[in-house]
Write a structure and sequence with these properties.
This protein is of the alpha/beta class. The chain has five helices and four strands. 50% of the residues lie in helices and 25% in strands. It is globular and about 40 Å long. The N terminus is likely disordered.
Length: 138
């Protein structure tokens, strides 16, 4: 049941991202041609979990998983946040990595599942988009 809910949340998140990126509004003919081409492109979204303590190990893990996703052709990278925070130096390394490296190669988003406190908030604001889930205490 929990797996079903997570898959549903991920599907909704991808749908929201698709809607956000496919809005055309009023554009020129040249831009419309580019948008039509972009709509025909197959996009690949990858979720990368960022949970527990933010430290050097999480930085190395995020870097390794992100590089793997980019090498596999990911166009959207969604970082699932669920952390109270941790080391500020590691959070700054992750922040700079997402901002300076990843965002130039793919669209980035932070999906805050339950919490992104302190260092987790810093990592979240490095992404181009932030999505929040409706948190319910059980």
């Amino acid at each position: 049941m929990l797996l079903g809910k997570l898959l549903m949340i991920k599907t909704i998140a991808i749908s929201i991202l698709s809607i956000c990126f496919c809005y055309t509004g009023t554009v020129s003919a040249k831009a419309k041609k580019q948008l039509v081409f972009a709509k025909e492109t197959i996009h690949k979204a990858v979720f990368i979990e960022c949970s527990e303590m933010v430290d050097e190990g999480l930085y190395e893990s995020i870097k390794r998983r992100t590089e793997t996703a980019l090498n596999d052709g990911a166009t959207y990278i969604i970082y699932e946040m669920d952390t109270f925070g941790g080391r500020v130096d590691s959070a700054l390394s992750i922040y700079q990595y997402i901002l300076q490296v990843v965002s130039k190669k793919a669209r980035t988003a932070a999906y805050i599942r339950t919490k992104a406190i302190s260092a987790g908030a810093l990592i979240s604001v490095s992404c181009q988009d932030i999505m929040l889930s409706k948190y319910r205490a059980q």
